[in-house]
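Chain A, query sequence.
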Amino acid sequence: MTTNRSDGMETRRSLLDAAATIFAAKGFHDTRIVDICRVSGGANMAAVNYHFGSKEKLYVEAWRHAFERSMEAYPPDGGVLPNAPVEDRLRGQILALFHRIMDPTNLDFDIAHKEMANPTGLLSEIMRRSIDPLRAMLVKVVREFLGTHATEEQVQLCEMSIHAQCFFQLLHRRQRKCTPADSPPPVSPASEVGIDALADHIVRFNLAGLRECRRQCAKQVKCQIKGKE
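Chain A, predicted structure.
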């Protein structure tokens, strides 16, 4: 009984690994269940139906599987303790996000990109429930860093700027991946910079910008108070 349960879990895991790989490469519409079964190492259509019920449900579970593996490899807090100084917690979150984005083995971004290019709507809810808490974590630490004088709009704009810098590198990496072998790769000033050096730069740049935003927020409040006197 235990062996059968273990074999079943292994089959399910193999199907999820295979599905994530193929959905990331081809998207939902161009992926065939028979190809997933072949890549999984021998699972059959009956196994797909037993574990997932349909191609649509397998698609959702494959994205969830890829996302959870990404979170396991790069915890969103960056391994920084919750009682650490706010600057360290912010640094940890930015580094975790950047390394997750830049890791070519993380398939959740590739699946999401295919979904955006040819939407099915199947991933909307699972992505929202999975990603919103991560964004809320970053917004919370940005808000704490900026201080009580910052408005919600200022907090949201700073959080957007951090994500934009990280995701630009994902876009560039994707462009390089999609460039034909006989064509020159897209040029970027950061092309020859190592991931760790680039991540450190993004952290320093964002922390400097946030400090200036914090200073400006405090200055605006002082001016408002002075104007009322």
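The CA atoms of residues 63 and 108 lie 6 Å apart. The chain is about 75% helix and 0% strand.
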